[in-house]
Design a protein that fits this description.
Number of strands: 0
Strand content: under 5%
Largest sheet: none
Number of helices: 9
Shape: globular
Order of helices and strands: HHHHHHHHH
Distance between the termini: 40 Å
Radius of gyration: 18 Å
């Protein structure tokens, strides 16, 4: 399968997230939280789709907006909410980064969004993004040029796990293929805004 075919999911999900960000930016222009989050996703989905990176400037800008908005609307308790949300967003994705499953920009993006939303709402976005991201990963896998090799490795690892009762070193090493998770976070946020949380 050509490299072009392998990139189809990246551009499909990236453009879908961009379209949603533009839509929510217009429809919710009078709701500061949704407006600023949508603007953030508009920026990072472009860079994540085309450059496989999320700019630190965009992340820092959303952190500042999150703290500023929460301090302005709720005073010092709002600042505490922003801090707790940022730390929660960081903690939720940090294990996946340490296992090699995603880039540092994705972790920082969820942390920045947490500063705007607070800990309870960022947890809901994390859950929804996880489910959507799992589906996205399957689509990326289906388009992978290494699909047969990956499936063969999974089968071998599973058999070794049954026999040895522990993960093989290759599986434990976290050699998972990375893809743009910024779009999954965006989908999770827009789902949460529209339909609410899962719990």
């Amino acid at each position: 399968m050509s490299d072009y075919r392998q990139q189809i999911p990246r551009y499909f999900f990236g453009f879908a997230a961009l379209a949603l960000a533009g839509y929510f930016l217009q429809v919710h222009s009078r709701e500061p939280v949704v407006f600023f989050a949508s603007l953030f996703f508009l920026v990072i989905c472009v860079t994540d789709t085309f450059q496989s990176r999320i700019p630190n400037l965009a992340i820092l800008s959303l952190v500042m907006v999150g703290f500023g908005y929460n301090l302005l609307t709720a005073g010092m308790p709002g600042g505490a909410t922003a801090l707790a949300g940022m730390l929660a967003g960081l903690a939720l994705l940090l294990p996946f980064y340490l296992m090699g499953g995603m880039g540092g920009g994705d972790v920082k993006a969820l942390a920045a969004l947490g500063a705007l939303l607070g800990p309870a709402d960022i947890f809901q976005v994390f859950l929804i993004a996880g489910l959507i991201g799992g589906g996205m990963a399957l689509v990326h896998l289906a388009f992978s040029k290494n699909l047969k090799r990956i499936l063969r490795n999974w089968r071998t690892d599973f058999m070794l796990l049954l026999v040895n009762r522990r993960l093989p070193e290759r599986a434990a090493g976290g050699a998972a293929d990375k893809y743009q998770y910024g779009a999954a976070i965006a989908f999770g946020f827009f789902f949460f805004v529209t339909w609410g949380g899962l719990l």
